[in-house]
Amino acid sequence: MKTRVKLKPGQKGTKKLLAQYGAALVCVRYRYDEETRWQIKTAEIIVSESEWEPPSPKHSASTLVPLRIGIEEKVLQKQAKSVGGYWDRDRKAWMVRYGCVAGTDLEKLIILETQEKG
Q1: CB under 8 Å to 9, separation ≥6 — which residues?
Q2: What is the pLDDT of residues 63-79, one digit of tens each?
Q3: Is residue 54 assigned to a domain?
Q4: Angstrom distance (rounded) from CA 95 to CA 86
Q5: I want to staple 44 with a disulfide (CB 3.0 to 4.6 A). Which of 26, 33, 66, 79 is the partner?
Q6: CA 100 from centre of chain
């Protein structure tokens, strides 16, 4: 199923849903199922709102974090090097400052350190 159109409230194709849901309407999507040959209109609405406190960062910007980058992943290795990263033989991981990888694809490669039970 493919989404072809995503409309904001007030645009043509959203008027009835806007009248029904008002300010709670976030967007309207028109989806198309090629197998069944059906057009499906979906509405995203706000059902509740509450205060929320973002979690504190796990690492400060200057903290070195280990990244798992495969030996054949030369492009990722080059990215790590370009932000000052280096290979740590003992940890068998790339070490990069968290501030350099936060919000990038490299952030997904951070090795989460777990406490071993013993």
Answers
A1: 17, 18, 25, 26, 27, 28
A2: 999 999 988 999 999 99
A3: no
A4: 5
A5: 26
A6: 17
